[in-house]
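Exercise 7. Predict the joint structure of the components listed below.
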Amino acid sequence: VFQAQVLYDFTAEPGNNELTVKEGETITITNPNIGGGWIEAQNSRGEIGLVPEDYIEVKQKIAVAPAPSVGNVAAPDLSFFDAYAPASTPAQNQASNGNDPWSVWNADPSGGSSNNWASNPEGTQTGKSAAPDPWASVSHGHPQAYQGPGRKSLWNDGVSFPDTGQRTSNYFFSPLNRFPGFSKSGPELYLLCKQLAKGKDRLPIYMGEVGPVWFYPETQLDCVVADPKKGSKMYGLKSYIEYQITPNTTNRPVNHRYKHFDWLYERLLDKFGSAIPIPSLPDKQVTGRFEEEFIKMRMERLQGWMTRMCRHPVVSNSEVFQLFLSYKDEKDWKTGKRKAEKDETVGVMIFSTIEPEASDLDPVEVEQKCEQFSRFTKAMDDGVKEILTVGHEHWKRCTGPLPKEYQRIGKAFQNLSSVFTSSGYQGESTLTDALTAAGKTYEEIAQLVAEQPRKDLHFLMETNNEYKGLLGCFPDTIGVHKAAIDKVKEGDKLVATSKITPQEKVTMAKRLSTMSYALQAEMNHFHSNRIYDYNRVMQLYLEEQVKFYETIAEKLRQAHSQFTTM
Amino acid sequence: VFQAQVLYDFTAEPGNNELTVKEGETITITNPNIGGGWIEAQNSRGEIGLVPEDYIEVKQKIAVAPAPSVGNVAAPDLSFFDAYAPASTPAQNQASNGNDPWSVWNADPSGGSSNNWASNPEGTQTGKSAAPDPWASVSHGHPQAYQGPGRKSLWNDGVSFPDTGQRTSNYFFSPLNRFPGFSKSGPELYLLCKQLAKGKDRLPIYMGEVGPVWFYPETQLDCVVADPKKGSKMYGLKSYIEYQITPNTTNRPVNHRYKHFDWLYERLLDKFGSAIPIPSLPDKQVTGRFEEEFIKMRMERLQGWMTRMCRHPVVSNSEVFQLFLSYKDEKDWKTGKRKAEKDETVGVMIFSTIEPEASDLDPVEVEQKCEQFSRFTKAMDDGVKEILTVGHEHWKRCTGPLPKEYQRIGKAFQNLSSVFTSSGYQGESTLTDALTAAGKTYEEIAQLVAEQPRKDLHFLMETNNEYKGLLGCFPDTIGVHKAAIDKVKEGDKLVATSKITPQEKVTMAKRLSTMSYALQAEMNHFHSNRIYDYNRVMQLYLEEQVKFYETIAEKLRQAHSQFTTM
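Solution:
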């Protein structure tokens, strides 16, 4: 018998074969192989149902085995680890917020899995005490000891979980510590590495008009995420959604479930996270997974995520990303997966593959650039959140009280028209007809107002939400950089105390320069995308806004024309 | 020291500088010149605050002199008696309601002085227990003994006040009993009057296309109320506003203070109130009387009131109204005033001057018509109040949260633009300029939204407010009619018990027919005005609404054009 202790409260969604469990409760695992992040368990009252894996801690028998590697498809329990956020169900939030899709991320304090910022909800929205500020570790003028970009250091909330220090050995890692291989390895690993392997995956950095830039391919990779299909396994016990992804290179669709996206995300984060902000996937959600609206929304966001990855010259050109988009068959996929999981050029070692064409940078300049990027990304993070907050409020007003008010105005006009009709006075049908029409017009306006956010605010919010996620990765990326700067600053002292040789000190400065080129290339990539994205989304927004107000004006003009001119 | 005895309990409105006093209490008047129907007084506990003048009786020094007549301009302290509703001050309401002028009447439970409906605030607005329903006395199927149209019968709230039965003798009349000469006289006075005086002021009723109609003059009287000027008396201690009224007949301006309008109103109510709904004057207000905004508003409403009176063929043609509009000099005015105050054809006796050209109506038809008008005016009263309620809410939203939201959207765009400008990345000024412009556009929209209600909702509200006042007079007018119907129904019984002669019974039925013709003529007048007014106000409203939305669309179009097309 496999027993497990429940770590967090979980409330079953009715009709979903789920089991409600309480923190501290002991349950018996009746089927550990459900997949999709679920196990089947039985409680002390004999009730059986599904429970999210990461809400429980296994007590015996399936305790941590020294398994070969995380993500190995051969290991049957890996699907087990889709981390579902232990938060309020999005379906409930949607209901109370006029179908505002942003109520999900606004109300969800644990947000996107790897996104530090997502975990830091707007104070104005929740009124809860602020989460630890991930920017604190990169605050200006007060350099702190770098703790590594992993979650643990940023979410020191007293929850203890196994940390064997070895990336692939802890199966039951908490959702707060999803990247065991990525944490702990500070930039020293790269800065002081004896010998950099000369591999084939070189990442050159060129000097462009705007400064250091990545190598951009001639044709930009792109893909379409479409055609979500429901599949099932375990004799229909659990079902899932499979998406069809078609890259513009092969034009041949491949199928992936959400958990494959998640696998890709973890690979990219492992490999590039120190140099390139890898935005987290759209929120995973425990409930409502087969609700049409939700699937559409998730698909739209997966599309947004894939598009952003495709646009990135380094990410899109990587072997693992290419594998994901264009594997030939199951065998190809499995082989590729295994290879990707064995990739050792991960974490800060990614810098060892970077080759700037320009000469080494002065550490002072490196530090200045770093400070500038830190300030900018923090400021933009604030700006983006402000837009999300006001947009969220606007959404609520446009779908809640405002259309209700227009409806009431419309009804009031129509009611008055009915009263007038009952007057018994002759020849006022022109007035009453016009008054009724005016009333109906305001009811139509109510509808327009309520529908409008989906037409314009939606894209503005989605884009800013994406940027919020992206910007949430910068504290990690910049943190690695800051730690490297601090290490190099210690150079003389380290030499004096014979911790490193004078040659190693020189190497460290050179490698820091490489890191800075990478950071600058990445910032330039970010800026150019940002300009494109915001130009585009603002145009879309204003276009739809113009149409909206013109439509209303036209409707009112028609209503006006029905009254007799005097 | 001026001392006064409190006649009725008065409960201070918090935050209004008012003083709670009890019936029988002696207070010291610390400032008798507050104006607007208030004095400042100190109680025995040393507390100082405002008390309504007509709640107290002065004991010495400024005790009431045996002045010749109410409203006589020679009586220096008559301004003292402007009955201001002892309610919350409008200035405060304005402040908390985004300068919504309707917050005044919506929040003021004692409303317009003679307007029963105005005293019956929307339950939805105040949440207070409902005031006695004046429509109750004209409810269908449950005829009640007619108690007269005066306030007392309708506001039988246990407050006793002096009623000398003589119209002009009680100076300290309560605001609840403003028309002592008008109450008490039921329709019997007319129905059973031995001899109807044959005066010169005959009021013919013709049969028009729509039924009985008043005699309409060829050119309609009209006047302009303008040029409010501040005057003062009592060595500047008391100041007042004088308005210039110019009728289209003489084209010669005359000056009148508000209290003269009030005098006119009372004369018209006395004389025509039983047959013609005389809407009350715009609310008197204690505070802000010299505030520009308030003067403008009052003038606008006095203009509205005068226009409505001018439009009424009976009222506009009356001697007292003509006197008001075109007195030649002070002497002419004083003589005319005295004559008007001595007019004995008041109350129900107005019916004695009405001469229908058509044959007598059947009592059954009379009752049907009466029921129909009662139903209609009640229904319209509901409809008008609904518009006022939603309009009031819309006003608050448009001047409060909505522009704040647009402002915040505008600021958020501009803030993001500032952040972008700080990026250090080259060539994004097109985006940042456009983003700033878009932000400013939303700030402009905020302003447009906040200003819009004054441009369109204002007139819609004013018109409906006027109609609310007008409709509030119908319970009285219809009540007289109902009482007459009931009296005629009693005819046989009265003859059987020798209370009246058979001839008197016939006379009563004939006179009831005359009353019905008057009511029908008045309803037809009301309907034709209503159709005109609502057609006009809806056109104005929709016109301005169209302009509003077009302006916003145009502004957004310009903002949109600043982004680069891609």
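Discussion. The radius of gyration of chain A is 28 Å.
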